[in-house]
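Lecture notes, structural biology module. Today: joint structure prediction for complexes of three components.
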Amino acid sequence: MNYIIPLVIFTPLMMSLFIMSPLFSDDEKIIRRTAKGFSIFHFTLMILLTAFFNFSQSEFTMKTSYKWIEVLGINANFEFDSLSLLLTVLTSFIFLLSVFISKNMIKRSYRLYYSLIFVLQSAVTGVFGAGDLFLFFLFWELELIPMYLLLLKWGSGNKQKTAMKFLLYTFFGSIFIIAGFLLLYYWNFISNGILSSDFNNINTIFIPDGIKALIFVLLFIGFGIKLPVVPLHSWLPDVHTQAATPVSIILSSILLKMGAYGIFRFNLQMLETVYEILAPFIMLLAAISIIYAGFCAINQKDIKRIIAYSGIAHMGIFLLGISSLNETGITGGIFQLFSHALISAGLFTIAGIIYVKCGTKNLLKLQGLGEKMPRLMLISIPVIFAGMGIPLLAGFVAEFLSFTGAFLFQSEGIINTKLITLIALSSVIFCSVYMLKIFHGLFFGEITKRLNKISDINIPQFAALAVIALYLIIFGIFPSILTNTISIYSTVTYNIAGVF
Amino acid sequence: MEFFSDNIFLILIMPVWVCFIIASGIFLKLNISYKVTLMLTLLSSFTGLIFSGMLLKQNSLHTEVIESIFPWLSGENLNIFLGSYIDLTSCVFLSILMLISFIVQLYSYGYMKDNKDFNKYFIYLNFFNFAMTGLILSPNLIQMYIFWELVGAASYILVGFFHNDKETSKAAKRVFIINRIGDCAFLAGIIIFAYFSITYIKQPPDTFLAFNSIEDFRFHLLALTSDGFYNLILLLFIIAAFVKSAQFPFNVWLVDAMKAPTPVSALIHSATMVCMGVFLIIRIFPLLNNTLLYIILFAGLTTAVLCAFIACSRKNIKKMLAYSTSSQLGLIFTALGLGAIPAAIIYLVIHSFTKALLFLCSGVISKTFKTLDMDEMHSLRKSDFYLAVFWIIAALSLSGLFFGGFTSKEILIKTSSANIYVLILIFITSFMTAFYSFKSYFKIFEGEKNDILPVKEKTMLTALTVLSVFVIIPGLMFKASDFDKYCIIAVITGIAALFAAYFVYKNKKQMQGFLYNLSFNELYLPFVYKKIGCIFERVYAISDFTDKYIIDGFVYLIVRINTSFSKIISRLQNGNIQTYIAYSIFTAGVIISIVTLVYHAAAYAKGVSG
Amino acid sequence: MIINITLYHYLILALILFAIGFTGLVISKNLIKALICIELIMSAINLNFIAFTSFKNYIFLKGMVFSLFITAVSAVQSAIGLVLIYLIFKNRKTLMSEEIEELKG
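The predicted structure, tokenised, for the full assembly:
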């Protein structure tokens, strides 16, 4: 059963090569159908994998290993544990969604587009499934190129500048990550005498405290650029605004979760002792993220930019949750990953549909669409409410658990984390301001003459949004489905020997 | 009969089923007849009515039944169950909800018959029913918060029902955001309580933050924190209650909520949702100490007086009724602040019926005159006698002169008779209440001309009749032996206000003066709120500016530094080969001399030491 | 004065010649001047080798042979250099090295 992992990771890559090859037909319909069929196949594969998976332990329970660079001790280890598997299922689902949505929104160079999407899927699945430091880094870098090309070719606005900004900014983060990894690798050699970059060997490394803190900071900066933590977030709004909608969905639902996964796996699980010392500062950063991004979001006029800033705020809630280092907060943080992925997928889909139908994303020019598009208005109500944190929808569970967990954190330093959590709680109010700004700006009011000929959404688009809304409602009413599998991560799972 | 308390979740689920049926009907484009929708909805309300009636009958012995039905979220620290908590308070509130819901749904058929969004309206009404039922039946604070927010969301959807109008959409946004402020305070309070419960108190699994064990909190919290902190924590809950019940600093949303269809105003914003603040205070009553009770008393009295004052000068019927609701709820909070829970609940019940009657009448009036501005109304009594009767019944009850309101007012006055200042303010409020009730009666119903076409709608009239019966009946429950001097003063105040209203109407004077201006401009509160809103907008603009120019600017600064540095260095490449030759030879010479020097120095050092 | 001409005198002469040639090569704006200076450099190198050969006490034929090589190479090089300069002149109509800066930036 374990050999399925490389299958899951590499089949999209093979699919993309197949699509690009001259053997494949040039007909638009066939390309789109093949892509959709493959996404469904991949998603089914992931569901089957979940059925065979043992969710009750927090260590890696599905492993495969191939020899790669023997001399340096780098092997191609593929490992899944509960979090990786759930994130991979989420990835598969979101890619399925965006492939289906691409029908109306991508109108040229389909072959290149679908092959880039599949390379991206391969890369992201590889990040989640990697069990070796350098394999992780390989897949991490691999996702930059298709993303850059997707931004460059199918974007809008000043795409060259934005695509280059995305590439260079994220690549700059990767420098910090590779520095951290090399330090880990080097210290593994020094303390254990063998060359190895396996995840499982990292808990046996002894690293002196200063170096451990340095590795922590390096990795945090590197992953913090990807999950945007506030000082390092400025690539996100421009990229989201100017990317095509399916690309925006993938970026905000999956790529941000890669950064979150990195922080969780390395900073939280492997470098836990440093995290315990630095947790109040990280909570402060997270609270600043939440409030600052909320304020910025309220001032925007472009729908996608508001959604981008809301993504930064929600990831701030994730960071606040896991920094609490107790089971409630960590469960809340990880739940937030899934709930935010669904919410931002839904929101970007709505924005994309509006952009395709009305030709503009500017809230100043759009109003009163509720008259012409009652179906869209109906199905966007659960998505908008979930984004605001209304209970019985997934967003509330995540926020409630994260904030409760953060409040339970006992801090001994000068930073009063309880006060910070309560101040960050006011994001509940600001979140509703900008979410309602989107909702009212789109659907309420009198329709302008220019928009009078807009037609309502058709059944496939409605079905896509309905699936997202259904998941949000299900996870809101029965959160135990997810939390029972997540909450096995209590604080101490990976611990590097050599306590402070 | 255990059946009713065991199966209470049935009345929780039924409205959801009806919602689904209607929604699938709309989606599959089956044209569900309006009568069918009405019947389904009435069925669910009627079931609820039966259940709550039976439970009320059972519960006269003050028994409590708690059931945890659904394990919602469990973890190492938290163990949250959803279930039901049936005691006298929840039975009473449930009965009011079901009764008024039934009547309003019947009325809505007549009111919304010509609207094409009839089915959508009933979906939202059923959803509201579901959320309110869940709220009233909550056994712990977390389920209460869940349904608290859902009720707020339902209220928002219903207020924004006519979404094509720009003013309505702005009003709906304001309603929701101000409600959110209360929700934020509520959530903060819950999290703080959860912290104490998890870390220090360690309750048994089924009862996380449950209401029947909430007295333990008082003891433990006072032992763990100082008095001031304890008051602050409970103040969060009190603020949440004030926001929901539209008390003084937060009463602006209730006026905005009047953009909703009139039956919705009757149901939500007079009789059920705004009573939830009172419900919360009753549930956490064992935790309140004297300071907090005093705060509630003070805030309640302030609201009562100020809102009654503003209501006197309103021209729009529904806005007047909105301020009236705030004011009466202020009186209820006064009763709570004095510790008299039964008095508060009785007043609440009777006020719900009265206010709902007033709102439903105003719905008929708005259909007759096609406007809500009282200046354009006149002499309705000559065309529609029954409506005048209903309004008189309601006005008499609201001002505490006769029928149900008399009973409740006397009970209120009796409980506050110990404190002379409270009593005086209650009398002032009663005066103003009676004043605006009767002034509106005279304005709308009296006059000479006889040219109004009355609206005769069977369902609406039936609803009004049933409701007025419920307003009249409590009046018969007053015991003559309870009559004392304060009651006489109250009755005299009411009658004096009636004469004052008649006097003002007869002379048709345009009221002027400082007090009138103050009242007319709503105490300049909206102006203050606008200023606060502008400050916040400034903050948002500043953070956006920071993001675009300072943080992003920092990134572009680094790019600029890089580019200019590379421009400087690239001047070395000037295309002239001779300069390249010079550079290379020069560098070669430097390297050779350095290497030679180092080699000789090392050799010399070696020679010296070796 | 009677000064013994030692090796160093020849080396310094070669150095001076080299320096003059190098300076001229780098500074001169006219390409033909640069070519002439390259010749100067070549002859300075030649002088260097011959000086080393003649001040040895034994017959050191390798140095003499190498200086013959250098002479031959220098002759060939000036021929090719002249051809290149002629082609540049035909293409660019100028022989000023300041105006030939295609590789700039």
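Point to remember: Residues 532-609 of chain B form one domain.
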